[in-house]
Amino acid sequence: MAKNFQPLNHLTPMALYQISWAIDAAAKQLANAYQSREEATRIARELVGLVTGHTPTQLILRAEECIEETTWHAIQQLLDEHLHNHKPLAYILGSQPFLTLDLTIVPPILIPRPETEWWVAHLIEECQKLDTATKNSLRILDLCTGSGCIALALAHALPQSHIIGIDINPAAIPLAQQNSARNNVDNVTFVLSDLFKELGTQTFDLIVANPPYISQSDYQTLEESVRNWEDPQALWAENEGTQLIRQIVMRAPEYLTDALSGHLPRLWIEIGYDQAVLAPELSTDLLSLTSMRDQFGIPRLLVEAKKTVF
Predict the structure, then answer these.
(1) Which residue among 28, 49, 135, 238 sits deepest, i.e. has the most Cβ atoms within 10 Å of its Cβ?
(2) 237 near 211, Cβ under 8 Å?
(3) Is the pLDDT at 93 greater than 60, yes or no?
(4) How far apart are CA 79 and CA 56, in angstroms?
(5) Where residue 267 falls among pLDDT bands split at 50, 70, 90?
(6) Residue 141 contacts residue 166 (beta carbons within 8 Å)
(7) Structural domain includes residue 68
C-alpha cells in the first residue's frame, strides 16, 4: 500500500472511488507544492488521466464513473513519487510539450524549460522572415541537443532546412531519434559527438546551443527535483559554468557560413542569468557577440551581434 493512501470509509457508496473524487483528493495533496489550487488541480487531472488512460475530455464526461481501488493506489504512488521522491512531473508523465511538439522525456535527459521554448519561438519567427531560397536551404547545427527539442522545433517549422543535433550523452541520441519519429520530423539527423568533434568539414548557416552553464556551486543549491533526477553533465560546467560556452564560441567561426550575415545572428547560445558579461569578453574580429534577455527580463542568450531581433 502506498504510504500516503487515503482511507475512503467516510465517503458515501456513490462517491467511493469516483473520478471526480480522485482528482479532488490528489489536488489537495498537491496544493502545498504549487502556487495555486488551479495548478494543483491541473496536475491532479494529468496524473489521474495517465493512470486511467482517459483524455481531459473523458475525465469531464466520466467524472462520476468509479475506478478500482487498485487504480487509486496507482495514482497515490505517482503522487508519492512526485511529492516525496521529488520526481519531476515530466518524468512521471513521460512527455513534455515544446512549442508544437509532444516530446518523450525520460530521466536523466534534461527536461526542456519555458525559457528555452521562448527563445526558440523567437528564432523561428526570425527565420520565417528570410527569403524563400535562403529559408529553404538552411543548414542548422544544434549542440547539446538532449531530447532534441530545439532541433526538432526548428526542423518542424522549417521543413526544407536540414538540422544536425549533437550530444555527448549516448542516452540522448536514441531519445531524440524517438522524438523525431513521434513528431513525424524527418529533416533532422542526430549524432553522438563531443561538440564539433565528429562533424569533419561540415559547415552551417546557423548554430544554436543550450549547453550546461550552471556553476558547480550554484548546482548545489538547485531543487532536489533537479539535482536528484536530471543529468548533472547537462546542467553544470567547469570554469564557473562557462567552459562549454567558451568552447562553442571559440570554434563556431570554423563551422559558420556567411549565408545569414546581415540578416540574422548566426550563433544563439543559452546562458545563465549572470553570464551576459561573456559577450564583450568573448567577442573577436571573427565573431562579435551581444546578450539578449528572456521573457522574464533575465539575460538568457549570447548571440552574434549582427542584428537586433527582439
Answers:
(1) 49
(2) yes
(3) yes
(4) 19
(5) very high
(6) yes
(7) yes
Is residue 3 one of the residues assigned to a domain? no
Give yes or no for a contact between 42 and 92, defined as CB atoms under 8 angstroms apart: no
Statement to judge: residues 122 and 58 lie in one domain: no
Is 213:242 a contact under the CB 8 Å cutoff?
Answer: yes
Q: Which of 143, 150, 136 is nearest to 185 (CA)?
A: 150
Same domain, 127 and 31: no
The reported pLDDT for the residue numbered 16 is: 62
Which of 28, 53, 85 is the last residue in one of the domains? 85
Last residue of a domain, one of 85, 108, 126: 85
Residue of 14, 188, 179 whose CA lies nearest to 109: 179
Query: For cell 511538439, what's the residue?
Result: 101
Dist. CA 169–CA 146, nearest whole Å: 8
Q: What is the 3-state secondary structure (H, E, C) of 178-221?
A: HHHHHCCCCCEEEEECCCCCCCCCCCECEEEECCCCECHHHHCC
Domain span at 57:
19-85
25 and 131 in one domain? no
Query: How far, CA to CA in Å, does 250 sit from each of 14, 284, 287?
Result: 67, 9, 9
Query: Per the structure, how many domains does the chain have?
Result: 2
Q: Which of 143, 174, 269, 107 is nearest to 279 (CA)?
A: 269
pLDDT in tens, 52-78: 999 999 999 999 999 999 999 999 999
